[in-house]
């Protein structure tokens, strides 16, 4: 039962973190930097990477929990 979580929504949460992070990086951050809004572009860049890292952390935390504690 590896990668099995208590809730059936776990895969959706990880996917949403990764997808929104990728979309923010590819669409929002580039568009803001191109429209001469560098500060907002930096914040969008940071937010995109934080979303991606949150998705990886949630997935990794679930893996550690299911592999060692469950």
TrEMBL record:
This protein's UniProt keywords: Membrane, Transmembrane, Transmembrane helix
Listed InterPro entries: CLC_0170-like (IPR049971)
Protein's name according to its UniProt entry: Uncharacterized protein
Segments crossing the lipid bilayer: 12-31, 43-65
Domain of life: Bacteria
NCBIfam families xrefs: CLC_0170_fam
Organism: Paenibacillus antri
């Amino acid at each position: 039962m590896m990668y099995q979580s208590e809730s059936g929504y776990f895969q959706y949460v990880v996917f949403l973190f990764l997808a929104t992070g990728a979309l923010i990086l590819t669409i929002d951050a580039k568009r803001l930097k191109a429209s001469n809004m560098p500060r907002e572009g930096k914040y969008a860049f940071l937010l995109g990477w934080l979303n991606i890292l949150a998705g990886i952390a949630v997935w990794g935390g679930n893996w550690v929990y299911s592999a060692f504690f469950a």
